[in-house]
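Protocol step 4 of 6: structure prediction from sequence.
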Amino acid sequence: MKILLIRHGDPDYTIDSLTEKGWREARLLSNRLEKLEIRDFYVSSLGRARATVQPTLEKLNRTAEVLPWLAEFRGWVEDPFGQPEPQHRIPWNLMPQYWTKFPELFDRDHWMEHPLMATGTLRQIVQETNEGVDALLERYGYKRDGMIFRTENNTTDTICLVCHYGVGMAILSHLLGVALPILWGSFMLPTTSVTTLVTEERVPGEVFFRCFQMGDTAHLYAGGEPNSQAGMFREKL
C-alpha cells in the first residue's frame, strides 16, 4: 500500500486559501497526481488544503472525503515565557536553543511527559490524530498491533491525504515511531510537497510503513516554480 501525504500550497492565511504562487503550485501538483492511480483522496476541512487538491479533482472528475482530524494540528502548550502571564502557543516552532536541551523530547515513548508538552491540549490532539490514522487504515484492512500493522491483504492501493505541516509530521511520527519534536524541529515539508509511505511485508500478514521519499517537490522543479519558504523562519541579522 502507498500513502501520499501532501502539504497544502503556498498559503494566504488571511482568507484560508492560496496565494497566486500557491495556485500555480497546485496546478503543477495536479500534473503529477493525475498520472497516478489514486484510489481515494482525503483532505483537511481547511480552505488552503481543499484549494490545493481542487485542480487535481477537477481534472479527474473526482471528489475528496473531508476528515476533520486532518485539519492543522490544533494542540497547544502553555509558553512559560509569555508576558505578563503564560500564553498559549503552537508546539512545533519551539526554538532549537530550547528543545534540543531535553533528551526526553528525543524519546518516542516519553516526549509528551516533558513539562512543557504536558500542558494544554497537545496530548488530546496527538491522540485524536493517532486514532484517525489507525481508523483510516482499518478501512483498507490494516490493524495496528504495536508498531506493526496486521493485514490479510497487503493491497497495492494508493491513497492521498492533503493536509498541513504540523499534522503531517504528527502522522509521520505515529506511523514511523519517531518522536514528534524531532520531526517538527529538524525536518521541513515544503508547500505541495509529496511524502510517500509504502508498506513493507517481510513477514506474511505483518507490515511496517517506510518513508520512500519526504517533502518531494519534483513537480515544482519540472514546472520552473521555486519552492516556497512558508514555514521557515527568517534569520536574525
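Step 5 (inspection) to follow. The CA atoms of residues 193 and 202 lie 29 Å apart.
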